[in-house]
Amino acid sequence: MVFDAPPAPHSHSWMPSSPCGSGCIEPIDQVGTARMFARLAGVLGLVLTFPVLTAATPRSRRENLQRRYARAALGCLGMRLRIVDNRPPEQVSAAGFADSGTAVMVVTGHIGWADVVALAAVQPCSFVARADMVEWPVLGKLAQLTKVIPIERARLRELPGVVGQVAGRLAEGNRIAVFPEGTTWCGRAYGSMRPAMFQAAIDTTTPVQPVRLRYLDRHGTPCTVPGFVGEDTFADSAERVLRSKGMVVEIVLEPHEHPGLDRRDLARRCEAAVRGTDRSRHGVLDTEWIEAGSTRVQDPSVDQRIPEAATATAW
């Protein structure tokens, strides 16, 4: 495996990073240029009509509308959705992650911007995401409408406040999706789930829904095309996805994890549920931690064993 992305400039050594770069991206079957532009036109049409139809739809029916739009967006991206529900009967909800008005924290690994669309196709929810996402073309409007909770990863002091916002939303009975790795990986490798965000579930005694999210090619092999890694720009990543053919996004809903009282233990349990028997292609980073108020961050004095790469990030 080639790690050809240059080292990322970090404001703080605690910031999560992954070694994934453009060398991790392996192309799959592609459509022609005309088909790619037709897909792009479909996505733009959805983005332009979504705010209008949302405003015109009764509040009680908006969730179903948003789910249909997300599924249509996946279709425009050339992806088929597959949902596998491994939860016991008492946890299964016809609505998706949870019944309306029932709080749940959804946690999964982070591969790229398409993760947001894939999760919304199961059931719309709010997200904790990088602050500049609201400025992105296409996804920015979706981020605003889904009430994204923004986070500036370079500002450690803001993290407890973001955890507090998540706890507040959960206490109100909302669904919140978080990416506890704190950064994107290629889809065949992954990092450890950081414990900070899990404190919100513990403080509100909210069940956690582990989700195993994978992108597969037409042969059923894990696909790295949607990975938003290395020096990727949104335009580069979007073109790569729009050109690809035969992709399937697989969402596996694992049994709920009770929050308990220890966020480190909860993070480990959720990571085990999400990863199963899979092993990271790049190995799992062993990290040491220090306390920083109500959050834990990586000890800046610990030597990094794996070179850091410039990665697209979201919390």
Automatic annotation (TrEMBL):
Entry coiled-coil feature ranges: none
Question: Would you kindly state one Gene Ontology biological process term found in this protein's UniProt entry?
Answer: phosphatidic acid biosynthetic process
Q: In which pathway does it act?
A: Lipid metabolism
* Species whose genome carries this gene: Nocardia neocaledoniensis
Tell me which residues make up the Phospholipid/glycerol acyltransferase domain: 104-216
Q: Which GO terms describe its molecular function?
A: 1-acylglycerol-3-phosphate O-acyltransferase activity
- Keyword line: Acyltransferase, Lipid biosynthesis, Lipid metabolism, Transferase
Name of the protein described by the UniProt record: Lyso-ornithine lipid acyltransferase
**CDD domains in alphabetical order:** LPLAT_AGPAT-like
